Amino acid sequence: MQATSIRLRAPGVSYQTRKVVLAAALAGVELSLSLQEDPEILSSLVPHGKSLVLEVQSASGSPFLIARSNVALRFLAENSPAAGLYGETLYEAGLVDQWLDFSFNSLETPAAVMHLPPDAQVPLAVKETARREVEGAVRVLDEALEKSTFLAGHKVTLADVGVFCALYELVGVENAGSMSIALENFPGVLRWVLTLLHQPCFQHVSPGEADKMKRLQAKLPSVGSTRRKLAEGPLAENGNRRPSKADVAGARATQASAAKGGPAGGGRSSTKPPLLPKDGPDSSLFDRRRTVIKELLVERGEAAVGETVTIKGWVRTIRAGNKGALLFIELNDGSTALSMQAVLEADKTQGFAEATPASCGGVGASFSITGTLVRSPAEGQAVELHATVVEVLGKVYGGEDGGVGGKLYPLSKKAHSMEYLRSNAHLRARTRVTGSVMRVRHAMAYATHKFFNDRGFKYVHTPLITGADCEGAGEMFTVTTLLPEKGAPRLPIRPDGSIDYSQDFFGRRTSLTVSGQLNVETYACGLSDVYTFGPTFRAENSHTTRHLAEFWMIEPEIAFADLEMDMALAEDYLKYCVWYALRHNEEDLVLLEKVPGGEAGLRERLRNVLENPFVRITYTEAVATLERDLAAEKVAFQVKPEWGCDLGSEHERYLTEQVYKRPVIVTNYPKDIKAFYMRLDEDGKTVSAMDILVPKIGEIIGGSQREERLDVLKARCREMGLEEAALWWYLDLRRYGSHKHAGFGLGFERLILFITGLENIRDVIPFPRFPAHAEF
């Protein structure tokens, strides 16, 4: 609906009117106010209209009336989509709706009971129960805001508007007395409130409210003081210990017992154990005693101006100014790609003399800096730290004589090649590129576990030492104790000249695993959906940019599933990882786009993967496309594609980058180029296998429906020269309750290459292992 005018009619100012006024201001909607209306007249216009009525006039006819504040919020957001008040994705829109419902049910409703006037004759116990319900809701809110600046996404949304206005009623009311909520007990909520109060719209929520907002801001303690208070002990405002989650759970259990007629303080105790805290035990013991730089630069920015903080990290750059009276230090703690600039003044910073390059060694030294955050005059950084105290925690001993100095420090120069950094893998985590890559790697590992856990998969730890060759390739590292530490080896030899591994540690030949798939399959046949995520090893004498001797594999296995379900899970998983990186590692991806040799359109490529369905073609169709374009001289390949041969990287990238310009799933490969456990198709020539090919990388995921028919599986083993005796336990799965199942494998390092845009797989694992290289 295209509105010509919008008027808010209400009996006065309330949290409902504040919500609507705020949302209109953020949406850029002109809103006229009429705040002295008769509630009975409003109620006659529309049911439930006593509190407010939003009157929307359109050119098409009579006014459109809205009587619910949250409905009014949604209307304003949907009619101003550019404002992004409903978030930037469907996921964020869902979060917004959840928080609005949370605000109504857990804050607004019990708050209304808390603030009923005395003449309502509501028992104090009822009000106290409502207050406890609200405090529990605020605790939930505090946990949600522990690592987030806003409730949904990276900017203010309707979620922040709705919850803020409900909370304002609880902490900003005049003379609330014992019914108010002390925000100093909830540092996450406090930080969020202070952040919102820096937004101009929140300081003028409605006529006459600006001064009240300023009073509220003035009476709120700083985040720093709150943290100090909590560090001294979790005390409530009255000096008593602040209730932990366990206390709250115990209190709720007691209340529930009393409600059912059980003991409430005396008499025989219940045999039923108290309820455990929903979100784990109270975890207030650990304290970094510093503020991480990401919180200040990425999450809070100018909202942190004026706070006194301590940061710790390693010097990226250091330079002097004003004839040595000033020092400008860029400090990075690894939490973000960004560095905090600290300004030190000789006459105002305690410890200044020790912080000079001559005293500390310069780049690479570790510092602790305490100071006040101010707005930064420089571009690219919202705040900088004006230091009052600096302490050198670790000097750089890189002088020629082993003394303090940076000359011999391996990372003293500003720029280094990736090859050089590989030779200094023990220090490269301090560099910008490696730091960003490792943060992405961490995020992808977390996203992997979260994705599968949220979908009910169980994490199975498969063995690293195995007697089975999953791939049938024979490229395995042998594990043996038969080699003596000194002298010539005296291996036990059989009459036929082979090594007698029966005398080895395990009594048989064993190797480092090339895959956990066979082992994890056994648990899929008892636990249903499972996955494994761990290191694997292949003794391939390969020096390409896509191969390692040691790498990590993610291998899910789905019970009662076919190839179609397998492909759906794989596409969902890959898109989830891409979404997670875009959502949580934006500053790292921005850096990786800008560094020399970085991929300029990295985020655009990732969004293309996220927003488009994967193309699905058969192997036969893929080969036909390659042969057709080769014959038409549209492309030249080093290896000619033909049916029966595996697709090479050049073929895979051509399909994804030139033909379809998006990820492609290729299915039904010839059986002779795939593993023995893949289900044989009805034609007897192909198997129910699939590979997911992505731009820049080529194959990133390989999977299949597993062969569940015992006779067919045994025949495939014979075809490929595998001993049935070595796989007796795997064949048993087909003897006892066999069923369809499917799974796939993804090389974790290839995923990181795909997400970061780097070219060499050796740069996305902390300590790469490849032929002739096993240092560190």
From TrEMBL:
Residues 438-766 form the Aminoacyl-transfer RNA synthetases class-II family profile domain. The keyword Protein biosynthesis applies. The keyword Protein biosynthesis applies. It comes from the Eukaryota. One of its GO terms (cellular component) is mitochondrion. Pfam families: GST_C (PF00043), tRNA-synt_2 (PF00152), tRNA_anti-codon (PF01336). Belongs to the class-II aminoacyl-tRNA synthetase family. This is asparagine--tRNA ligase. It comes from Nannochloropsis salina CCMP1776.
